[in-house]
Amino acid sequence: MKNQVNKIIAEKFLSAYASHDWEEIGKLMHPDVTWTLPGEGKISGTAKGIDEVVNRVKTIVKSGVKTKLHHILIGQNGLTLSLNNTAVEDGRILDEELATVLSIQDELVIKIDTYLSDVPMMERYFK
User: In this structure, what are the phi and psi dihedrals at residue 7, rounded to the nearest 5 degrees?
Assistant: First the structure.
């Protein structure tokens, strides 16, 4: 047994995100997936299940957010995506660093936890 998670899971997730392939994102998720995101913005809180997770991704994409990958970090039980999100809409600005931690079970994403550099900025952008 390898003592690390396969990086390809993160690469597939990022590719599906970039191409707006909602079906592929769903295929990468465990049926019991949860996604936590801090703050009080429209995308904050805990999304539960594949449909809620995919809908959160859709909301982020439809809000004009551009995501730049810095690094994929590999762990024993998951992967961390080091990212930068930027967007400008109706005078609102988003420019934040984030870490999105993907916990993996049976080669599927079972849990996503997102950590933000500027929660108030995200809240203002996703009001």
Answer: -60, -25
DSSP state of 75: -
Phi first, then psi: give them for residue 29, nearest 5 degrees: -95, 140
SS3 8: helix
Burial label, 87 (beta-carbon count in 10 A; 0-12, 13-18, 19+): middle
Enter the tokens of residue 103. Answer: 């916990």
Indicate the pTM of the whole model.
Answer: 0.94
Question: What is the pLDDT, as a whole number, of residue 99?
Answer: 98
Please give the radius of gyration of the chain, using alpha carbons only, rounded to the nearest integer.
Answer: 14
Round to whole Å and give the CA distance between 57 and 120: 20
